[in-house]
Amino acid sequence: MTNMTVKECCCFLKKLRNPSRAIQHARLASETLFSINEIEALYDLFEGLSYAIIEDGRIHKEEFLLALFSNSSMQNFFADRLFDTFDIKKNGVIEFDEFVRSLSVFHPDAPESVKIEFMFRLYDLKHNGFIERDELKEMVLALLSEMNVDLSEDAVEGILNKTILDADLNGDGKIDIEEWKIFVSKNPSILKNMTLPLLREITQAFPNFVIHTKVRELEVVV
């Protein structure tokens, strides 16, 4: 261990103290686009988030919102949808494996097909395997609100009609996953927000990750 840095020694000792965690991290590294070292860095980041308000080692929605907006009570439609999509087990919290697997989708090297499927789940508000017109309308209205754009009802309906016409190939009034894949392939700009370049070098991305809460202040150095 004489050639190890202080940080590497600490990581090594952590693994010795918690072999089950080391096994989990190794499994996640083999199943995602992150290396073992990157998984360790993500775990430090996850710990900072998951102990920000409710200290139970899981990310609750309030903690998720706090990380995104520095406000645990912020109301944001897209943040709610993102949290719900990260919550793969649908138990109301984000656990570490869900956190890593979901972030892996945004990795620059993640296959486009994976990004397309993740975005489909984001739009599938009812979790029934389809994007229906009312779901699409809710997403469009939320997007316009985020952009502070005010369109007439007729203009919104025009956007919906055009999207449904282009995407709903079998004419059943809703978009299934195969239709969505074809639609996105013709409109690749839809995926522009599905890649986070910093995830390619996650160990350098958060040199000083600080969360401020009303309860206490945590500083996690990755």
Automatic annotation (TrEMBL):
<feature type="domain" description="EF-hand">
    <location>
        <begin position="155"/>
        <end position="190"/>
    </location>
</feature>
<dbReference type="Pfam" id="PF13833">
    <property type="entry name" value="EF-hand_8"/>
</dbReference>
<keyword id="KW-0479">Metal-binding</keyword>
<dbReference type="InterPro" id="IPR002048">
    <property type="entry name" value="EF_hand_dom"/>
</dbReference>
<keyword id="KW-0472">Membrane</keyword>
<dbReference type="GO" id="GO:0019900">
    <property type="term" value="F:kinase binding"/>
</dbReference>
<protein>
    <recommendedName>
        <fullName>Calcineurin B-like protein</fullName>
    </recommendedName>
</protein>
<comment type="function">
    <text>Acts as a calcium sensor. CBL proteins interact with CIPK serine-threonine protein kinases. Binding of a CBL protein to the regulatory NAF domain of a CIPK protein lead to the activation of the kinase in a calcium-dependent manner.</text>
</comment>
<dbReference type="InterPro" id="IPR011992">
    <property type="entry name" value="EF-hand-dom_pair"/>
</dbReference>
<feature type="domain" description="EF-hand">
    <location>
        <begin position="74"/>
        <end position="109"/>
    </location>
</feature>
<comment type="subunit">
    <text>Homodimer. Interacts with CIPK.</text>
</comment>
<keyword id="KW-0677">Repeat</keyword>
<dbReference type="GO" id="GO:0016020">
    <property type="term" value="C:membrane"/>
</dbReference>
<dbReference type="GO" id="GO:0005509">
    <property type="term" value="F:calcium ion binding"/>
</dbReference>
<dbReference type="Pfam" id="PF13499">
    <property type="entry name" value="EF-hand_7"/>
</dbReference>
<feature type="domain" description="EF-hand">
    <location>
        <begin position="111"/>
        <end position="146"/>
    </location>
</feature>
<dbReference type="GO" id="GO:0019722">
    <property type="term" value="P:calcium-mediated signaling"/>
</dbReference>
<dbReference type="InterPro" id="IPR018247">
    <property type="entry name" value="EF_Hand_1_Ca_BS"/>
</dbReference>
<comment type="similarity">
    <text>Belongs to the calcineurin regulatory subunit family.</text>
</comment>
<keyword id="KW-0106">Calcium</keyword>
<dbReference type="InterPro" id="IPR045198">
    <property type="entry name" value="CNBL1-10"/>
</dbReference>
